[in-house]
Each structure stands twice: as C-alpha cells, then as structure tokens.
Amino acid sequence: PPRSTLFPYTTLFRSGLKRGTEYQNREVPFGARDRLILVTDGLTEARDQNGAMLGVGGVGDLLRSCSDDPQRCAADLSRAAHKRSRGALRDDLAILVIGLDDASSAA
C-alpha cells in the first residue's frame, strides 16, 4: 500500500505566503504508489452535528481508508467532508491528489 506521512497544514503554512518570510524546505522520498494529498482547511474544519471539527487526526483516519486511485481518493475525502457536515460546509474545500504509479517515473 502507499506510504503515509501526514504534515498538517498548520506546520506548513502557519505564517501564510508572505514576501520576506523564510520557509523551511523538507524533502520526503516519493516512490511508486505514493500519493501527495493537498487539502484546504475546509476538510479539517468539516463539522459534525455537534459542531466538532474533523481535525488532522480525523483526516488521517480518512486517508487510511482512502482509495489508492488518486481521483477516487479525492472523491472519498470530499464525500466524507460533505457527509460529516450534512452538506453544509462552512468553508471552501479543495483537494488535490497526485500519484506516482511507476517507480521509474520518479527519476
């Protein structure tokens, strides 16, 4: 199965994209069947009927059951956010899933 490493957006973009801000580069090996999944906070902030947000841990749980197919994975995540919020998301939701299917493509 694809390897999973979760980097919460708060650690990646806490200060926003501002001129003059120094950012830390991080290299993460990316191999065959791995996926790079980028989401907006509309996913982590999807709220249930009691107002509880999905959060980073909830996203991690969703990713463990997500399809290996990038398009299906994006659809799975979107469907889960809409289901949790009963179709009433409070924020925009953007999901990008990039997959590498062949190890020879990584070179």
Characterize this entry briefly.
With 107 residues, the chain is of the alpha+beta class.
- Bin the helical content: 25-40%
Taking the alpha carbons of the first and last residues, their distance comes to 21 Å
Pattern of helices and strands: HEHHHE
* Main sheet makeup: 2 strands, antiparallel
Overall description:
The protein is α+β, with helices and mostly antiparallel strands and 107 residues long. 31% of the residues lie in helices and 9% in strands. It has four helices and two strands. The chain has a two-stranded antiparallel sheet with strand order 1-2. The longest helix is centred in the last third of the chain and has 15 residues. The two termini are 21 Å apart.
Secondary structure layout plus pairing:
Blueprint: H1 9-12, E1 35-39, H2 41-44, H3 55-64, H4 70-84, E2 95-99
Antiparallel strand pairs: 1-2
Question: What are its keywords?
Answer:
107 residues; alpha+beta; 4 helices; globular
